[in-house]
Amino acid sequence: MFLNSTRYGLIACRYLVRCYYQGGGWLSAPEIAEHYGMNVRALTPSLRQLSRAGILRSRRGGSRPGFILADDPERVSLLDVMLALEGGIKVECCRRVIPELRCDCPAETCSVCTVFNVELSSLRERLAAVSLKDYGEERGSGKADRQG
């Protein structure tokens, strides 16, 4: 349902939150990728997207290039991160996605979209209620934690 780049961005945010509460500091994309065993090339676009959205700050050069949270993790929700990475969470009318489709539902009351959009509305509410601080809290240690 979500893009792999969104998954990578969420995983990176968890690590950046933990580092924020352990004294902060800039983390490079390779450091984050290595921590979780990710491909740095797959991770980097997500980090850039989060930087453009203002969730992360980035810097090049200097003694410690990399990424850092732009705000207190308590003030950023998972919905903020998801919207920055996905651009929106909604289901388009079937006829917009498949133009040649012969469907008798009016676009504004499409029965397929209505079902999914009700669920997505609920998901938006749940994501808005979870801060990055909550998301980044320790859930244990070991291999399962390293997988995100």
Automatic annotation (TrEMBL):
**What GO molecular function terms would the record report?**
DNA-binding transcription factor activity
What GO terms fall under cellular component here? cytosol
Q: Which organism is it from?
A: Bacteroides fragilis
Q: Name one Pfam family in it.
A: Rrf2
What is the protein's given name? Rrf2 family transcriptional regulator
The record's PROSITE patterns line, in alphabetical order, gives: HTH_RRF2_2
